[in-house]
Amino acid sequence: MSRFLTHCCALGVFAALGIFLVSCQKGNHVELPEQELQLDEFSGEIVEDQQHAAGVILERFVNAPKVGDLAPETRFFDPETVEEVELSALLGGKPVVLVFGSWSCTTTSLYTEEYADLYSRFSDVADFYFVYLREAHPKGGYMPALAYDMAKVKIPEISDPQGLEGRCKLADEFGKKKDLPMRFLVDSMDDMAAILWAAWPARLYVIGGDGRVLYSGGQGPWYYKLTKENWHTPPPIPIEKALNSVPYAKISLEEFLESLPQ
């Protein structure tokens, strides 16, 4: 009887260990540091003009997590349920690709076909998420003449939603309209994800299963490099000097994904 009980206890330990390992693989035990950054003067504000847009970028660009950093715990929202989703819950398995942007961002809308292509080629080795941010060029706000990009993509006039449900609805509509296969997440109305990741108006990151940043893309739109062919006009010199003081990936997201074990 004693030997039987010992055997049963051993089986119980192995079973518990198995459950623990499975839960770790699902991302339930990845701990990320709580955010230390606070809201800034641009939080929750519609982007009104060029000066406002430059202010947002120059205020936040130093926040960008670098390769090797632990990703900051970030709280998103599911656009279908409007329920909170923590970044840590998405980690623990394959690397996680975060694509930050919005419908009115020409950089984002210009590359919807490329997003779908990268997903189809690399979804076996990475999990893809599109994080929907505050509108880059909202109706009644900052709507510059972007002839180069606009010649290639038609963007409807989009008002910046005033509430979370409106942003969630817009994110869901954008994903379905553009047939984007990845899961969508939504930033809070105070733009905390955009602050933590220096992600507005567009940016790309990859986070490893252990929560560390593997790929830290450049500040969009100027250094946004989704594929090998991507190229953008450099920013004005004062902004260029500032942005280049923070390290970022010089290769494209496509090239990085190609380097992962297939």
Topology:
Layout: H1 2-25, H2 50-60, E1 75-77, E2 84-86, E3 96-101, H3 106-110, H4 112-122, E4 127-132, H5 147-150, H6 164-177, E5 183-186, H7 192-196, E6 203-207, E7 213-216, H8 237-243, H9 253-259
What number is the mean pLDDT? Answer: 87
Number of helices: 9
What is the architecture of the largest domain at the second tier of CATH? 3-Layer(aba) Sandwich
Looking at CATH, the homologous superfamily of the largest domain is Glutaredoxin
- Taking all Cα atoms into account, the compactness measure Rg is 20 Å
| Strand order, sheet with most strands | 5-4-3-6-7
How many domain modules? 2
- CATH top level of the largest domain is Alpha Beta
Largest sheet: 5 strands, mixed
SSE order, one letter for each helix or strand: HHEEEHHEHHEHEEHH
Q: What's the CATH topology label of the largest domain?
A: Glutaredoxin
> What is the helical fraction, as a range of percent?
25-40%
Q: Note the beta-strand portion.
A: 5-15%
Rounded to the nearest angstrom, the distance between the terminal CA atoms is 50 Å
Poorly predicted regions: 1-27
Give a summary of the structure in a few sentences.
The chain is of the alpha/beta class.
